[in-house]
Specification:
With 641 residues, this protein is of the alpha/beta class. Among the domains are: 33-72 and 272-469 and 484-506, Rossmann fold (3-Layer(aba) Sandwich), CATH 3.40.50; 516-637, GMP Synthetase, Chain A, domain 3 (2-Layer Sandwich), CATH 3.30.300.30. The strands form 8 sheets. It has an 8-stranded mixed β-sheet, sandwiched between helices. The chain has a 7-stranded mixed β-sheet with strand order 5-4-17-16-18-19-20, sandwiched between helices. A 5-stranded antiparallel β-sheet has the order 22-21-23-25-26. Helix 3 (72-83) runs parallel beside helix 10 (303-315), helix 6 packs across helix 7 (194-202) and helix 18 packs parallel to helix 19. It is globular. It starts with 17 loop residues before the first helix and ends with a helix. The chain binds adenosine-5'-triphosphate and magnesium ion. Adenosine-5'-triphosphate binds at residues 257-262, 264-265, 379-382, 404-409, 430, 491-493, 505, 508, 600, 602.
């Protein structure tokens, strides 16, 4: 499964060739100060920084560009509104393909941001206040983020799929006194009661806010609480609203992680370093060229939406698509319709979406004109080589480089990825470190491992986009990332480095299986299963086994229209044996209609592990589960074995 796909011939205009990567990467490691001060020039500073990174991992204290001042809204909006006022900043594609869409030029975006910023001020928001944004995927969601940045408020965006309990928990956690929301929204023609969810959250114990800013979207009739709720259109004004002078280390946002491994953490990012990182990774990773349309299908409630729907594209003066809907409405070709309609050049999505769409057949793709596509990206989970190839060959017609970007909420932006036209690609491998990133693989004792080897993935030195703390809980920050291997940032992921220096994420280290003394990543076994033409998705966990220590338990979903059978059961076990070896032969295959996923679309293996262990009492924090009812079905399936 480790074969290589050569990168397409370098384009004359490409942002980076393989030689340039080598030279620049070496400089970023050997002369970090001058390198990062140079990169800081991507942004307009009110006071240019004289220093780059000043950080320590023991004790944990991280700062970048600390003596510089700037405003990220100025950088994302105002400077482009001045230099290219008519260029398109956002293209809005509504849930209903027949409803009117919208495009916003940088001039219009500036006007809307000023109006929203003035409304926030009128609501009582001041510099440093935490503002919770709970919005559909509409332009106003991104505008609310930018308006916060403009006035120095700290945004905390909550994905629109979350429940009132989750909203309440996040409001309390960061003591946020303000909420921006909409009357309602729709996803896949299904109404989502945004305002009602906020009202329910605000009715909960211990939750209290000073103001709610309401955006009219669906026109639904919603109750308005006197003295607390204000409509944006009543509060907004076009008055002058200058961009606040922010220190580089002033907080920009708090964002809660997906909750794949436990209770979500409120990760804090600051202004200057994050801005440089978002701007730089966007430009290099996607080989962004001025004028191109970029579409990241993630919700702004995830870090991917922060860095690659809002900040990355706008900091580069680019055009970003905001899509309100879902991949399967009105049919499974919706993504491809959007690309066709808006002539998207650069497309970025998650393996979960790719696998789901692949399952529905190629005709949805081949019936659309995708010739505008130039670079394809993926993020969120390891992508199985099988899904990678489908993305490459069917969606990208074999012409588009694929970037498999490994990163985390905590890293602010891309950390490991190949670069288009600069690097060969290996399906299933994220590739090489981004500039300034020093990956390190260590064994369980913390000894660093050299050469082609598997280990715990750590990062040795700080980078500008690194999270500074967990909001209000620096001890948890230290405990989660810096205590397992003191002096290093520990990612929580397992990883293999091959002989070419490519990195292969094998899954969370907690998910590593040890069968008869052989350690293996869940990703490998899953990829071997997904290779079978009848398998859509697989999730693999270990469970206690008398003889082997751990046995291999595989949850498998099948392609549309395929039924489980004894023959398929035998076939799949054979297939894994053949691909990886007899030691990886599954002990149990559990056919299921679906897999439990976080609301960001990641498989929640910790729950699957409990079910495989027949331990249903303590499933842990399940608040970020997309479809809790699946769990009961899985437990039933387990008990019937
Ligand atoms: P929590 O931290 O609450 O458990 P989470 O780790 O899922 O949730 P995110 O920050 O959204 O929250 O996800 C980061 C993780 O996603 C990474 O640590 C890694 O496990 C996985 N990941 C992201 N991109 C990739 C990729 N390209 N290849 C493999 N894994 C990836
Ligand atoms: Mg994580």
């Amino acid at each position: 499964m480790n074969d290589t796909v050569a990168h397409p011939a370098p384009q004359a205009s490409a942002n980076c060739t393989s030689d340039e990567y080598r030279t620049l990467y070496r400089r970023s490691i050997e002369e970090p100060d001058s390198f990062w001060l140079e990169q800081a020039q991507r942004l307009d500073w009110f006071t240019a920084p004289g220093k780059a990174g000043e950080w320590s991992y023991d004790p944990v204290d991280i700062a970048w560009y600390a003596d510089g001042t700037l405003n990220l809204c100025h950088n994302a909006v105002d400077r482009h509104a001045a230099s290219q006022p008519d260029a398109t900043a956002f293209i809005f594609e509504p849930d209903d393909p027949d409803a009117p869409g919208r495009t916003l030029s940088y001039r219009e975006l500036q006007a809307e941001t000023v109006r929203m910023a003035n409304a926030l001020k009128a609501l009582g928001v001041t510099k440093g206040d935490r503002v919770t944004i709970y919005m559909p995927m509409i332009v106003e969601g991104a505008v609310a983020m930018l308006a916060c940045a403009r006035i120095g408020a700290v945004h905390s965006v909550i994905f629109g799929g979350f429940s009132p309990e989750s909203i309440a928990g996040r409001l309390k956690d960061c003591d946020s006194r303000f909420v921006v929301t909409a009357d309602g929204g729709t996803r896949g023609a299904k109404p989502i009661p945004f305002k009602a969810n906020v009202d329910a959250a605000l009715a909960m114990d211990g939750v209290e806010v000073d103001g709610v800013l309401l955006v009219r979207h669906t026109g639904d009739d919603v109750p308005v609480v006197d003295g607390r709720d204000r409509w944006l259109h009543n509060l907004a004004s076009d008055d002058d609203c200058p961009c606040e002078d922010m220190a580089a280390e002033d907080p920009l946002f708090i964002l809660y992680t997906s909750g794949s491994t436990g209770k979500p953490k409120g990760v804090l990012h600051t202004t200057g370093g994050y801005g440089v990182w978002a701007a730089m990774t966007f430009q290099y990773t996607f080989d962004y060229q001025p004028g191109e349309v970029f579409w990241c299908s993630a919700d702004i409630g995830w870090v991917t939406g922060h860095s690659y729907v809002t900040y990355g594209p706008l900091l580069n003066g680019g055009t970003s698509v905001i899509f309100e809907g879902v991949p399967n409405y009105p049919d499974h070709g919706r993504f491809w319709d959007v690309i066709d309609r808006h002539e998207v050049s650069l497309f970025y999505t998650a393996p979960t979406a790719i696998r789901a769409l692949m399952r529905e057949g190629d005709h949805h793709v081949t019936s659309r004109d995708l010739s505008s596509l130039r670079v394809l990206g993926t993020v969120g989970e390891p992508i199985n080589p099988e899904a990678w190839r489908w993305y490459h060959e069917v969606v990208g017609s074999g012409r588009c480089p694929i970037v498999d970007t490994w990163w985390q909420t905590e890293t602010g932006g891309h950390m490991i990825t190949t670069l288009p036209y600069a690097h060969d690609m290996k399906p299933g491998s994220a590739g090489r470190p981004f500039f300034g990133v020093r990956p390190l693989l260590v064994d369980n004792e913390g000894e660093s491992l050299e050469g082609a080897v598997s280990g715990n993935l750590c990062i040795e030195a700080s980078w500008p986009g690194q999270a500074r703390t967990v909001y209000g809980d620096h001890d948890r920050f230290i405990e989660a990332y810096f205590s397992t291997f003191p002096g290093r940032y520990f990612t929580g992921d397992g990883c293999r480095r091959d002989e070419d220096g490519y990195y292969w994420i094998t899954g969370r280290v907690d998910d590593v299986i040890n069968v008869s003394g052989h350690r293996m990543g869940t990703a490998e076994v899953e990829s071997a299963l997904v290779l079978h033409p009848k398998v859509a998705e697989a999730a693999v966990v270990g469970y206690p086994h008398d003889i082997k220590g751990q046995g291999i338990y595989c949850y498998v979903t099948l392609m549309e229209g395929v039924e489980p059978s004894n023959e398929l059961y035998t076939d799949l076990r054979q297939q894994v044996r053949k691909e990886i070896g007899p030691v990886a032969t599954p002990d149990h295959l559990h056919f299921t209609a679906g897999l439990p996923k976080t609301r960001s679309g990641k498989i929640m293996r910790r729950i699957l592990r409990k079910i495989a262990e027949n331990d249903y009492g303590s499933l842990g924090d399940t608040s970020t589960l997309a479809d809790p009812s699946l769990v009961d079905a899985l437990i039933e399936g387990r008990q019937n074995r």
